[in-house]
Amino acid sequence: MQSQSGNYCGDSNPSTELQQLVQPSDQEQRQVDSDCVVESNPTGTNGCAAQQTNVATHEKVDNANGTTGEGPAGSTRNAEDELLNSTLESLEISAVAYSQDDNELGSDQLDDTILENEKMVDYQKVLDQCGYTELMNMLDENNNKWRDIKISIAITGQSGSGKSSFINALRGLKDEDKDAAETGCVETTIYPKPYPHPDNKNLVLWDLPGVGTRNNPQETYLQTVNFKKYDFIILVSSNRFTEHDTYLAKHIQFKFDDPHLFFVRSKIDVDLENKQKGRRIPMTEKSRQETLDEIKKNCDENLMKDKIQSPLVFMINNHDTHTFDFKTLANTLVDKVKELKRDALVLSIAPFTEKIVDAKVDALNRRLNDVAGCAAVAALHSKREEGERLEIDILKKEMLMYKRQLGIDTHSLNVVAGKFKKDIQEIYIALNSETHAILRKFDDYCARADKVVPSELHGLQVLKNNEKLYERYQRQWSSVLKKILHLCIKENITLQRKIVEWSHT
């Protein structure tokens, strides 16, 4: 943050409007827009087109007649209102307990939530020299450093192997989606082509040309693709791995100490379908598993016969990431990624395994106090006597991140609803979704949680001598975020259980 002249400011103009302090990225903005339309208005009517880009303005709940455009205001609306009231009452009870117990200054168990004096001094310098907006930008950047960490995954294989569909599956896309990798049986890749993950531009899957083609002969292939720059290398094949594949694998293992080299046997669902076509009697689960074991064993033996050491082979169906070994592959990527890059990978991929969900929760818990600190600074800067609550934007943005990370956001639930031919309202009811109710009245939720008594220092650019008030706010918003994260975890667990139930009906 500190410039060569000793000024703590960046290049931004200190006079920038305060409302710009929590502007989301383009991807986050699209997600907020989507959540607004359905969280506030599940039928998609009376959406957010006319609203400002500030996160708080997306909480457009009631229209002129007091409804949210969800259709008949019958039992569904009453049930949602009851759930909302119950959630708010529960918050008030926990907030009262917090104000009586946890809010006592000097509590040893909360020492790690107190901002160090050195940090407070640094923050005050930024505030004095650059203003509130620049300070909040700095805090937001500190809380989201994982987005700046680059992860590169190389995907290679012969044409028709399912390489492009595999890239799309890892990015949570279907073949016809915008920015999806082009699929087909004709080799179109001549040079390595990057495909950024839609939720994190720094997680990049690279579509590499197949080795042994006219444009990429074996002799020059390793120099052309430069495998040193990749964190993982994945070889994809839709049948047995070819001589070109094993040539490449041997050279990668020889050249690098820990190459993180994986083998993906794609289109395994097609193999089972073809096996079934040659039978009169439907395959049993046992016979299907025996076929899978036979294919896996064959892959392992052939690779080891070609002197590939301890090959890691995963059998997958690119069009259904919940079947075969796709989850195991995802878990292995998380296990083997370098520690410094773990959060960047975990917070970018979909929560389709228990291990990934646990890793996401761990990452979200570790950032919770820092986000609460950011909200505390915003609360201190708010003009409470005028009803201003700048921290609400920050808290809402974090809640939307929790929902997105745990697969209970609007987009994810719409995908589930479409798959099982259900209305989005049915999904919310099945989840007993307290987070949906909270988002409808997020300002009320935060107002009821706020037990800090305003002082004359509110709205002033003073942090250095205001540590106690800051501490109260940080612990208060930390408590609120913990409760929200707990609710998101609970709804994720319920959703996974419901998906299993719906899959068998």
Automatic annotation (TrEMBL):
InterPro entries: G_IRG_dom (IPR030385), Immunity-related_GTPase-like (IPR007743), IRG (IPR051515), P-loop_NTPase (IPR027417)
Keywords attached to this entry: GTP-binding, Hydrolase, Nucleotide-binding
Keyword Iron-sulfur recorded: no
Biased composition annotated in UniProt, kind: Polar residues: 1-26, 40-56
Region (Disordered): 1-78
Family annotation (Gene3D superfamilies): P-loop containing nucleotide triphosphate hydrolases
Identification of the protein by name: IRG-type G domain-containing protein
